[in-house]
Each structure stands twice: as C-alpha cells, then as structure tokens.
Amino acid sequence: MVAAGTLASAGPALVLSAVAGAAVVLGLLVPLAATMAVVAVIAALALSEPDPVVAGIAGLAAAGYLVVRHADGDAAAALTMPTVLGALGASVVAVLGATVPFALPWVPLVAPLAVVAAYVLVLDRYVGHPGRGRPLR
C-alpha cells in the first residue's frame, strides 16, 4: 500500500508516504494507527497524481490491510470470498472509470433519477405495507 503510494511521490506526498510507513509499523500495536496509515496514503496519492492502476493497487492493498488489521480474532477468517470479490470489483471499476474515456453529456440528467431509483429499491424491503408487514411489491 505504502510502496504503491510512494511510486510517484515528491515533496509533501513523499512526507505523507513516510508518515504512512511509520503508521503501518505503529498499526501493529494500535489499530487506529492502521486507519491513519491508509488516510496518509490516500493523501499522498491525491497529491502525487499517480496512474490509475497504481492507485487501484494501493486502494486494494489498503482495503485488505484494514480488513485484516481490524478483524476480531482470526485475521484470515475475515478475508471471506465476498470481501475479496467486493474489493477486487471496486478496484476494477475504479481503474476502468479512470482510464476509459466516456463522453456522455446526458449522464448528469439521468444520475438523480438513478439515485432515487436505487434508494427506492434498497428501502423497499424495509418499508412494509401498513397493517400487513410485507414489502410493497
């Protein structure tokens, strides 16, 4: 995570990468330091503007590091298949979103409708019909 964040670092980003490296070591004792290490790497990436693939690798490593570091008990048990697939999927989508140029001028018009539709779909199972306790559909 820190190595990927340090590849294109210079100046303040390099200082943040050093802080992140120290926080990773301190994170072995204090879980909050692990979170601060990830935040420092994110800041270093934001200042250094690396390639999207490098940022994706750093993000994937940061997600895995946080899952293992904040796991209760057995750290290997925290890395379940849904956790790994979710992290990989998010990394792939982020890298593709940053590398593939899309020029869709109608997206800002459709985005609010898509957000409302997703909101309704997610909450539909929790909002029941009054008196019956079932979802609306």
UniProtKB/TrEMBL annotation:
<keyword id="KW-1133">Transmembrane helix</keyword>
<keyword id="KW-0472">Membrane</keyword>
<feature type="transmembrane region" description="Helical">
    <location>
        <begin position="75"/>
        <end position="100"/>
    </location>
</feature>
<feature type="transmembrane region" description="Helical">
    <location>
        <begin position="52"/>
        <end position="68"/>
    </location>
</feature>
<feature type="transmembrane region" description="Helical">
    <location>
        <begin position="13"/>
        <end position="46"/>
    </location>
</feature>
<feature type="transmembrane region" description="Helical">
    <location>
        <begin position="106"/>
        <end position="127"/>
    </location>
</feature>
<keyword id="KW-0812">Transmembrane</keyword>
<protein>
    <recommendedName>
        <fullName>Integral membrane protein</fullName>
    </recommendedName>
</protein>
